[in-house]
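Structure ticket #2291
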Amino acid sequence: MGFSAQSFNARFWSLIGATFLGFLGIGTVLPGLAPHIRHDLGGSDQTVGFVIGIFSFVALAARFLSGPLADRRGRKITIILGLASCGLAGGAYLLPLGIAGAYLGRILQGFGEACLYTGAAAWAVELGGIHRGAQALGYLSSGIWGGISAGPMVGQWLGSFQHAAMFQLTAAALALALLSQVVEDYTPAPHAPRKAWIPRRLIAPGVSVGLVNVHYPVIAGFLILHLAKNGNSGPAAFTAYALLILLSRFFLGGLPDRMPPAITFYGGLAAMAVGLIVLAAAPAPPVAIGAAALLGLGFSFPWSSVAGTVLRQTPEGERGSVVGLLSAFYDLFVGVSSFAAGAVAGHFGYAAAFVMAAFAIGAAALAGRAVFFARPAQQAEVEQSYLVSQMRV
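Resolution: structure written out below.
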């Protein structure tokens, strides 16, 4: 059975559109936030770091709330809460609260992003069909990546941080209007009390997802600086990296549904490792751009391969929590690796940070063995958990 974009219905694409608008608003304020804090509000460089960084910690904590909310109250209400919080973030930036307004905006934005993504991912998989969950996640990721990528350009075009904040509020309102037309069929099921914050079966998938994303702070923070000494190809390389992620997640996102997801997972890791090792050598511009494109291509597959596999083994009433927990691993590893990459680059040079990211890819490959090649006892445990949950329903 072949999968195509045309086989997804209008409700699915309305969800993708609403998610795109939400993340477009989030991305629009990013380029002007630091200058706004530094020059308009008189904050220090340290204040800039704290204001920007609080987003990740709030988003991490909110993952543990947004998942159960999506399972027990519904995907749509979770997304509505996320979009409303993102809209309020835009409003908070406009209030005459000084630095406190900037903190409030980032806190609301972190909470909003967590709810928006968790609800959207769980709902997208169900609207598209669990048998093509990877493709649904690929389309959703394209909408998110497209919104975050286009947002800074919109922010620059608007010309001021205040206009960007107003646009974020407006984009969230438009997304809410679009989402209001989407009917939700999900019926929450009774839930037994959770025995642990993180179920044991999600540790290996979460760690593998987290390790795959260790490279992102390295690329975002040091790619341009690292390549400046040899042809200054950093901006073009980053564009190639981002463009390949966007295109491959849209056009090739269904591959983990059509073939064993272990193949797309390990194939993606191999491409990422090669790309990182080549970039570590700071090669000539054509090679650097090609390596960055290869890195972006490889990065497009591990998340959907892991998430699609885990969600197929998860009862419908627990998928929101699973998405939230897997996303929490992403937040945790990106946050920790941001500090680690800075320390490694400061002591050993930029190239060492890329090597560190390549080692993380190797560790992700080891963690992935427990996801795709689980022992029979582990598989039986998953199946037993599924049957018990179905009996509760």
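Closing remark: The CA atoms of residues 83 and 340 lie 32 Å apart.
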